[in-house]
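Recall from the previous lesson that a structure prediction takes nothing but the amino acid sequence as input. Here we apply that procedure to Magnesium and cobalt transport protein CorA from Flagellimonas ochracea. The sequence below is the only information supplied.
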Amino acid sequence: MATEFENNTWVINYSFESYYDRKFSMENDSQLSKTDKTITWVNTYGLDYPDEFRQIVLGNELDDFLLRLLLNPNLGNKVIELEDQLFLAVRILKTEDNELEAEQMFFVVAKDFVWCIQEKQGDHFDWIRQRIFDNKGIIRKKKADYLLFFILETIVNNYKQKYKELVIIEDLVYTTKQEPTPQFMVEVEQKKATIHQFKKAGHGLRDIVVKLDSVEVKGFQTKYFNELREQINGLLNEIESDIQELESQINLFFSVQGHRLNEVMKTLTIFSVVFIPLTFLAGIYGMNFDHMPELNWTNGYFMLLGVMFLVALITILIFKRKKWF
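The prediction returns the following C-alpha cells.
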C-alpha cells in the first residue's frame, strides 16, 4: 500500500530517446542518480516527511547536512553548495488564485537529478512536463541544471502574469470625482500590499539567481541564470515604476481633495464675512431699549435695509477686487 509520501510525490525520468512518468515508489525510485545517462525529476508536495527524506538522502549518499535543511520550513531564500550537489531554499508566492500565499520550496540538484519539494499542493510546471513528454525544444537534450532553470523561469513568468492581472494602477480611478470613502482607502492599501508582496518575492528570487550565477558545482552550468536575472530585474523595475506611479497618484488625489476642502472653506468664509456686519446691525436694532431714536423714524426700517445692502455690496466688491473669489 502506497504511503502518503508516495501519493504526494511524482517522478519523471527522461532522456532524448524516452521518458516515464509515474507516482513515486520508495522501492523503485528512491535512487535519484541513474547510470543510464537519464535525468530524474522528483516532485514532492509537503514538507512533513522526515523518515522518507532521511531514507532518500542516506540511500543516495547525499550530504547528511541536507536532512537538517529539509526539516527546517522557515529557511527563506538560500543557496548552499555541497559536494557535487546544490541545495536551494526559495520562498515564493503561490499565484494559483487571487489570495496570494507564501510557500517554501526546496531543491536538491545534481548533474542528473532535480528533487523539488513544495510546501503546498499545486504548481505551474505542467507545461514543462508536457514539453518533456512531447520532446519539444532542447529540454530532453540537457542536464538537470537546465531543468532547474526552466522551473525558476516558470516561477518568474507566473509572477509577471499574475502581477499584471492583480496590479493595474488605472483600476484605482484617481480622479477629482473620487471620494475618499473607507472602501476606497481599503482598496488603495490592498493594492499597495499586493505590490510589496511581489516586490519582496522578486527580490528573494533575484538573490537566488545571483548566487546560482556564481556557484561552482561539478556538472552544473551557470550560463542560463544570467538571462533569468535580467528577466527578474525587468519585473522589479516594473514594480518600482508602479510604486512610484501609485504614490504619485495618491499624492495627487489627496492634493485635489485638499484643494476642494480649501475652496469650500473659502466660500463659507466669504459668506461669514459678508453676514457678520449685517448680523451686528440686526443685533443692535433687535435690542429692547426704550430710548432708541431710530425706532421712531418713519423710514427707519428701509434706511437700515439700505445700509445693510450697502455694507454687503462694499464687502463683496472688496473681495472681488482682491480676487478672493
